[in-house]
User: Fold this.
Amino acid sequence: EAGVVQSPRYKIIEKKQPVAFWCNPISGHNTLYWYRQNLGQGPELLIRYENEEAVDDSQLPKDRFSAERLKGVDSTLKIQPAELGDSAVYLCASSLGPGRIAGELFFGEGSRLTVL
Amino acid sequence: EDKVVQSPLSLVVHEGDTVTLNCSYEVTNFRSLLWYKQEKKAPTFLFMLTSSGIEKKSGRLSSILDKKELFSILNITATQTGDSAVYLCAATQGGSEKLVFGKGTKLTVNP
Assistant:
């Protein structure tokens, strides 16, 4: 069974440029998460989707970050414009959803962003 | 504010040693505690704990939860160099799928 797939794996951009990350969750997983992980830190939730609905986006910096999950499957996370402090690994994860082995997340390999 | 605190932040041991990693949490409406192992890429799931005092084991790894004292430990016996990784602890809240992660413990096992 394929795991969570993310792309690109690495991205280097200059500040003020836009960037987008893509995630394909495990088939059948209704819940999708985007996390940001800074060096030496644990992952921090940016946004959580239940199917196509964003049910928790309280930690998403909405002035520059946006996300979508059209059709409740794939998702994209966009940053525009990027700032130096956005350099981090962006992790996508999926799970079966509420009431189904709640809490067991399957992570993708992450997209490492470097903003110069 | 919900928080998860792990200790130590970093640990260096020799192969064959036994290590204990600590995780304390303060999370509203706590439901479960999870341990993940993160090598150079994605965190991989190790354990989910929901009940106090029940040890979960997988090979040389074991974990237990104390819901009264709000902490969990992860034990690794007879460590191997392949155990070198960052071990993340996360707490989930009832009524949501939100995980609150700690900063992790970086374990280095030297030959």
